[in-house]
Amino acid sequence: MADSKKFLYPAPPELLSSLSIRHALKYMGPGLIVASVTIGSGELVMASRSGAIFGYTMMWCFLYAGIFKATQVYCALRHYTLSGEHPMVSWGRIPGPPLWFPILLTIPTICVMPIAFSTLPEILGTFIHRLLKMPLEGPSVGAWNHEEFWLNLWATTTLVGCLALALWSSYDWVERVSSIILGALVFAVIISAVIFGPDLVKILQGMLVPQVQNYEPWITENIAYRPLIERSPWLEIALYLGAVGGGTFDYIGYVGVIREKGWGLAGRGSASREKLEEATKNKEDLKRARIWTRAPLLDTGISFFFVILVTLLFATLGALILHPRQLIPDGGEFLTVQENYLTALHPKLALLYRTGVFLAFIGTLYGAFLIYRHTVAECLISIFKNRVPRASSPLWRRWVYSYCFIGGLILVWLPHSIAGNIIDRLTFSTIIGGATTCGLWCFAMLWVDGIRLPKSLRMGFGLRTIVLISGLALTGLGLKTIVTYFG
């Protein structure tokens, strides 16, 4: 009690004060959930799709987007840890119409959420249908043809199962499951990639040299790929940029999760700039504040390292195995063609891949329910303040889970002529909540860092430079994809 009266910042745990690899791994918390949330559509599908279509040439999308997004997330987590105020609340002070920036992020974020809860169950539902070798043709059921009805039924079953898990599980259990999923995937794809021996020179060129390649003749001359041919390569880039580590709608909730961790002032109430300035005049308080920033740095750094690593490995396997065989994860083959990654080593490894797919997609949907609960809560609290329940209120769980579940089901059962196919919906969601809003987020963090924090706690020159570069790159790439999409 005496310590809390004397110092603003709580004493950091010994784990942060004396860092080691073992200690660092204990701070892989909220970031692992976000990593697992993106595995289903990100690494397994989109990274593989990139390698299958373009070989090694689009790997720069995953490397740079991963680095830029890690920077974006870290500076937000750092701000929350130091000020006790979620960035969405801080951004309400940006000059202009009242709350314009939080509203700019909130409306598209909440609108596109159900898309994830329709596309992911549909992808897994299609995989289940193919796995069980059920007929693709048969009598129609109501307004749906035979295949569409069964795919929708499998998708509904998947969504119901993941909702049940989300309702009857705890945050700690989510972390453990996320750790297992991420670790197993990294181990499996590393072994496969090493055995097949990729061209390291081409990988380095693809990662470091940004280029936009047109579709190869084997694609443009194949009528089966006509929907792909009609899409600009820039729309594929939009998918890839959104695939790495998620988007704005993931990160708003991700930042809110650390309230439960109690890092620094997060979850302890907002401290005014004047209070922060007064506190940091005390050398011990300043020391504590700086030590606390290690927690979000470790969580973000380690988690995004694994995100980038796994994404690049799946892109590499797509280039190594799918590209030469002219196989693209698309339509009814979003997950089946990737089975070649392991069956090329031994046919019996198909079971390992199939098990991994189920774990990855269940973990993705499971984690999405948790993250999006925090996302909606933080968005609406930033706008309506005390007129809505606190972020910890169980009401958010009930409302958000219902919204995502019902919205997902509606999109699943709507005809594709109305809702669009899986790629159409994923493209729209990444255009709306992808690179552009991530870039604007970086600029907003630069502004709020200078206004909200005292000089002793602000980002250093190096970090500010990286945040600025990230903002420029993500905004520029995002605007290009928006112009292409709506042009």
TrEMBL record:
This is Divalent metal cation transporter MntH. It comes from Candidatus Moanibacter tarae. Keywords: Membrane, Transmembrane, Transmembrane helix. The gene is mntH_1. The chain crosses the membrane at residues 100-128, 149-171, 177-197, 297-322, 351-374, 395-414, 426-449, 461-486.
